[in-house]
Amino acid sequence: MPAVVVDSSALITLAAGEQFHLLREFYSTIHIPPEVWKETTTTTKPFGVREAQQAKADGWLIVQAPQDLAKVSGLPFNLQPGEAEALALALELPGSLLLVYDAQGRKAAAKLGIAYTGTLGVLLRGKAEGKIAALKPVLGLLANRTTFWLSPAVEAAALKQAGEN
């Protein structure tokens, strides 16, 4: 299985939606750079800290520093420090999958040829594999607990794909 690199937004939103367990179920091991660890565990938000610390203690979340940020530092995107490190780490782990939410991070991943998905992709897979009973309540939790946002058209399409139209 290829390496999976996760940005802080995916960790926090999956925890807020009470679906953090999907990361372990789908990927068995995830890699995060130090800046993502910092962003996730030093936040004042009540989601993601405990889950990330437990995953690290259990050995399936690995904090790994990228060796070279040069390939991402010159990109014409407005990247947060954690996103930049996550992109660099994904480049260093051949064939890896990047879990990223922010549009700038997704555009950068596409430019660099990194396969990516986001929180919604993980949730749709969870629904398709029967690990989530219903997608709509999870999206409601995310809307109430985080800044996670979907346009009405994207939300409708996701609910239709999940068989909840």
Describe this structure in words.
The protein is mainly alpha-helical. The chain has helices spanning 8-16, 21-27, 34-41, 49-58, 70-73, 81-92, 103-112, 119-128, 135-145, 152-161; strands at 4-6, 30-32, 61-63, 97-99, 115-117. The strands form two sheets. The protein has a three-stranded parallel β-sheet. Helix 1 packs parallel to helix 3 and helix 6 (81-92) runs parallel beside helix 7 (103-112). The radius of gyration is 15 Å and the shape is globular. The N and C termini lie far apart (33 Å).
Task: Describe what is shown at a glance.
The protein is mainly α and 165 residues long.
Q: How many helices? A: 10
Profile the largest sheet: 3 strands, parallel
Percent helix range: 55-70%
In whole angstroms, how far apart are the ends?
33 Å
CATH C-level class is Alpha Beta
The global form is globular
Average pLDDT for all residues: 93
Please outline the helices and strands:
Layout: E1 4-6, H1 8-16, H2 21-27, E2 30-32, H3 34-41, H4 49-58, E3 61-63, H5 70-73, H6 81-92, E4 97-99, H7 103-112, E5 115-117, H8 119-128, H9 135-145, H10 152-161
Helix pairs in contact: 1-3, 3-6, 6-7
